[in-house]
Specification:
By secondary structure, the protein is an alpha+beta fold. It contains 3 helices and 4 strands. The structure holds FE2/S2 (inorganic) cluster. The site of FE2/S2 (inorganic) cluster has 11 residues, from helix 1.
């Protein structure tokens, strides 16, 4: 497997005991992961973008949180409705979605 161009971490409030319980999970972040996977697949970006669900980033009140490397862009209050815009603007065109970035 080649290294992806972008690695996307979506907080699903995963815990070490396997439980998912926390703010981002309560805000339907599992659906955000699903939406990213579908969007990446439909745009044929699977070799460029990897999606990983994670545990808490420690800034729950701004969740759901999505973090993108290599840039280290942190997105806040992401919803399923934002996913297509992030994929198109950031991953296809290289322009992070400013209105969602934590500064
Ligand atoms: S539960 Fe997502 S940042 Fe804390």
């Amino acid at each position: 497997m080649q290294k992806p161009k972008y690695h996307v971490f979506v907080c699903t409030s995963s815990r070490i005991n396997g439980q998912q319980k926390g703010y981002c999970f309560s805000k339907d972040s599992v659906s955000i992961v699903q939406a990213f996977m579908e969007e990446i697949e439909s745009r044929d970006l699977s070799s460029d973008v990897m999606i990983t669900n994670t545990g808490c980033f420690g800034i729950c009140s701004q969740g759901p949180i999505v973090v993108v490397y290599p840039e280290g862009v942190w997105y806040k209050e992401v919803s399923v409705d934002d996913v297509a815009e992030i994929v198109e603007s950031h991953f296809e065109n290289g322009n992070p979605v400013e209105r969602l970035i934590i500064k």
